[in-house]
Design goal:
The longest helix is centred in the last third of the chain and has 12 residues. Helix content is about 30%, strand content about 10%. It has two domains: about 140 residues, 3-Layer(aba) Sandwich (Oxidized Rhodanese, domain 1), CATH 3.40.250; about 120 residues, Oxidized Rhodanese, domain 1. By secondary structure, it is of the alpha/beta class. It comes from Comamonas testosteroni. Keywords: Repeat, Transferase. It holds the Pfam family Rhodanese.
């Protein structure tokens, strides 16, 4: 049996052979996740750094966390000894916002057996499960050649621009309602949202630190989409930099709503060009 969306801490604890990656990160302190990993992590886990391993350097025009170079990402997977038949489990501090990025990237290279740890490290600790400070040396892991095919389900900024009039898909913004509305913007140089985008803060997918049930998530997404005329496979998820948007992709998959895509550049790319239109306020919808 393979797991393709979520696993519980109890399930992971029973399968020490699974490959585990610690994706903890803080946007305001990029090395905080690595320090947290060194202070204690799930035994056997390797650290995946958002900026270094799960993104490529920003140019100032492609958003804050551009997708990694496909060749570099496949090399990193091989360097970490990941095999195509491995069950991979990814986690972060708890919400799954950063872990979902690696989940999405692995799916983009065709790795199906990858799941996010529901509740993350916070729940692992709450259950008093083992924590290690041993840092597995990559040199002790048999390297592989990971021969995946890079086939990400994405749209680029040109497609989003054209969609302002074509309306061929619905953009779903995973940021908090305040940033979507153009208030309290502290990360990107401009506040607001892409005109026509709906708002679904990724935190809405959670209840008490874990993902809501598939039934609840499906009902919520279908309610949001009910008056739009768009189906799940016509949704393009975005956020600030293409990271937390993956949380909405994951939530939709948990709900059985497949086929949504990602706009990797997201708001940080969109607002980087002052010629692109910006909308503010709570409209058209937020759930």
């Amino acid at each position: 049996m393979t797991f393709e969306t979520l696993v519980t801490c109890e399930q992971l604890a029973k399968h020490p052979q699974w490959r585990v990656f610690d994706c903890r990160h803080e946007l305001a302190s990029p090395n905080a996740g690595e320090r947290a990993y060194e202070a204690g992590h799930i035994p056997g886990a390797l650290h995946a750094h958002l900026d270094r391993d799960l993104a490529s350097p920003p140019t100032g025009h492609n958003g804050r966390h551009p997708l990694p170079d496909p060749v570099a990402f496949l090399h990193w997977l091989g360097h970490c000894g990941v095999r195509k038949d491995d069950q991979v489990v990814v986690y972060d501090a708890g919400e799954g916002a950063f872990a979902a990025r690696l989940w999405w990237l692995l799916r983009a290279v065709g790795h199906k057996a990858v799941a996010v740890l529901d509740g993350g490290f916070a729940r692992w600790q709450a259950l008093a499960l083992p924590v290690s400070t041993d840092k597995p040396a990559v040199t002790e892991i048999a390297p592989t050649i990971y021969a995946g095919q890079w086939q990400p389900a994405i749209v680029n900024v040109a497609a989003v621009q054209a969609n302002l009039t074509a309306r061929e898909f619905l953009v779903l913004d995973a940021r908090g309602a305040n940033r979507y509305a153009g208030r309290d913007e502290t990360i990107d140089p401009a506040g607001g949202h892409i005109p026509g985008a709906y708002n679904r803060p990724y935190t809405t997918n959670l209840q008490d630190g874990r993902f809501k049930s598939p039934e609840v998530l499906r009902d919520e997404f279908e309610t949001l989409l009910s008056d739009t005329g768009f189906g799940a496979d016509q949704i393009v998820n975005q956020c600030g930099s293409g990271v937390t948007a993956c949380h909405n992709v994951l939530a939709m998959e948990i709900a059985g709503l497949q086929g949504s895509r990602l706009y990797p550049g997201s708001w940080s790319e969109w607002c980087g060009d002052p010629a692109r239109p910006v909308a503010t306020g709570p409209e058209p919808a937020s759930l």
